[in-house]
């Protein structure tokens, strides 16, 4: 997912000794079972069958309805399919794949399990014509309210999170080549349990120097459905593991130039070049190109070292070593005049040595200038974009500022000599006084 016993019309005549044999048979079977159990205990359990996942503990099930937030997907008649693009609304496409593929997302929302789990097998009932596919990603939320990356769950290879959690989210990605064909999803089941071996140690926060390009494409639509505007403030990374929903900042980066200016903004697109290159992760869990050093984008290796024949994952000749795309507003806020090298901190990774319970988060309700001191006249050090989520070290009093949340004299320190007025940010648990 015994064959039935054959019908018997009569009884065979009893032969001498047959009753004794019937009485001895249960005893012999019991002895054989005990001997076999002893042998297995002596040599250890047999190796697991390839492709079969051994059960963990705290097994639980979630059967989500095919309903939720959609981007490029339509749900009708109990099934989810790629939506036909409307002429007045450009179809969402990753910045790295303009015109090369069709894709859409169905966010099935969150679920809270009765007990903490960290491994997820997600069987999907779907029709997948040639040239189409359905991908499943799972993520979990920690005690501080920060989400893990989206982690793929494939047949025979469940998603395993870094830490156990009770609250998880599920996302389906539907992909198809150009044309009319579409995958059709009919049902999804989440089978969750706890890996007995425990969770992976928390890694330090990822920070790497990569080549940045200007995305532009004003009027286009990003992978998450965001319509790009002039002076927009977001970035694209070449993996959907860190793709956020439009208007959210669970996956936020801090991009800094050599001159020291920084922009802290959300990840709202996928690109450049690849869509499965989470180069900021170690291998594992790096999804692809695991022979490259952590922090080395595949496109950079292809451009500088002729890695993979100098091509990206789609067979295109790589024309620059980009590992991040910058929307126009980020490009200008950093004072860049051309594509160039930047340092990127991937703020959802690690905790910079802090325990999750000690993390204080704040979300920008509007773009806000970062100052070197809690004063409106202090040096402009960069920007925190709308929806970006930042770590707050402490709070202090400074100049009164009127922002999107009203008037306030409170300022939040988000780094060494880096302050933002609280009037523009929504905080979770209050940070301590500086």
Short description:
The protein has helices at 18-43, 298-305, 328-333, and strands at 57-62, 69-71, 73-76, 79-82, 102-121, 124-127, 132-140, 151-152, 159-176, 184-188, 190-194, 207-214, 235-237, 252-256, 262-270, 322-326, 340-346, 361-364, 368-371, 380-384, 389-391, 394-403, 406-415, 418-421, 425-427. It is mainly beta and 434 residues long.
Please report the distance between the alpha carbons of the first and last residues.
Answer: 62 Å
Find the count of extended strands (DSSP E, 2+ residues): 25
Q: Summarize model confidence as the mean pLDDT.
A: 84
Helix and strand element order: HEEEEEEEEEEEEEEEHEHEEEEEEEEE
Mind telling me the C-alpha Rg? 27 Å
Shape summary: globular
Name of the top-level CATH class of the largest domain: Mainly Beta
CATH fold node name of the largest domain: Barwin-like endoglucanases
Residue share in helices? under 10%
User: Strand fraction band?
Assistant: 35-45%
Number of helical segments with 4 or more residues: 3
Low-confidence stretches at least 5 residues in length (pLDDT < 50)?
Answer: 1-53, 352-357
Q: CATH homologous superfamily of the largest domain?
A: RlpA-like domain
The structural class is mainly beta
Question: How many domains make up the 3D coordinates?
Answer: 3
**CATH architecture descriptor name of the largest domain:** Beta Barrel
Q: Largest beta sheet, briefly?
A: 7 strands, antiparallel
């Amino acid at each position: 997912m015994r064959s039935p016993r054959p019908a018997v019309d009569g009884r065979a005549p009893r032969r001498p000794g047959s009753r004794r044999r019937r009485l001895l048979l249960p005893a012999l079977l019991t002895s054989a079972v005990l001997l076999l159990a002893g042998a297995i205990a002596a040599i250890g359990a047999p190796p697991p069958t390839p492709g079969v996942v051994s059960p963990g503990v705290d097994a639980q099930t979630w059967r989500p309805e095919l309903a939720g937030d959609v981007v490029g997907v339509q749900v009708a008649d109990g099934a989810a399919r790629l939506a036909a693009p409307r002429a007045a609304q450009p179809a969402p496409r990753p910045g790295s794949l303009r015109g090369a593929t069709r894709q859409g997302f169905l966010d099935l929302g969150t679920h809270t399990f009765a007990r903490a789990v960290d491994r997820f097998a997600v069987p999907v009932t779907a029709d997948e014509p040639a040239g189409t596919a359905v991908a499943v990603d799972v993520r979990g939320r920690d005690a501080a309210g920060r989400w893990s990356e989206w982690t793929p769950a494939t047949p025979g290879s469940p998603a395993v999170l870094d830490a156990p959690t009770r609250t998880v989210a599920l996302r389906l990605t539907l992909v198809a080549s150009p044309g009319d064909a579409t995958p059709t999803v009919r049902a999804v089941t989440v089978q969750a349990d706890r890996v007995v071996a425990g969770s992976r140690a928390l890694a330090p926060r990822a920070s790497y120097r990569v080549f940045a390009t200007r995305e532009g494409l004003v009027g286009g639509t990003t992978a998450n459905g965001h319509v790009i505007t002039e002076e927009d403030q977001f970035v694209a990374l070449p993996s959907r593991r860190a793709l956020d929903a439009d208007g959210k900042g669970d996956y936020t980066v801090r991009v800094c130039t050599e001159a020291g200016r920084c922009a802290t903004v959300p990840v709202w697109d996928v690109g450049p070049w690849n869509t499965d290159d989470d180069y900021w992760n170690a291998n594992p869990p790096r999804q692809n190109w695991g022979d490259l050093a952590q922090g080395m984008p595949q496109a950079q290796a292809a451009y500088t070292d002729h890695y993979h024949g100098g091509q990206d994952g789609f067979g295109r000749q790589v024309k620059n070593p980009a590992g991040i795309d910058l929307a126009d507003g980020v490009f200008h806020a950093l004072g860049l005049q051309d594509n160039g090298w930047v340092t990127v901190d991937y703020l959802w990774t690690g905790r910079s040595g802090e325990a999750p319970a000690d993390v204080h988060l704040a979300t920008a309700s509007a773009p806000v200038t970062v100052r070197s001191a809690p004063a409106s006249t202090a040096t402009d050090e960069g920007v925190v974009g709308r929806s970006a989520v930042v770590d707050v070290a402490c709070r202090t009093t400074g100049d009164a500022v009127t922002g999107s949340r009203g008037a306030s004299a409170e300022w939040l320190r988000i780094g060494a000599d880096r302050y933002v007025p609280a009037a523009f940010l929504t905080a979770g648990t209050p940070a301590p006084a500086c």
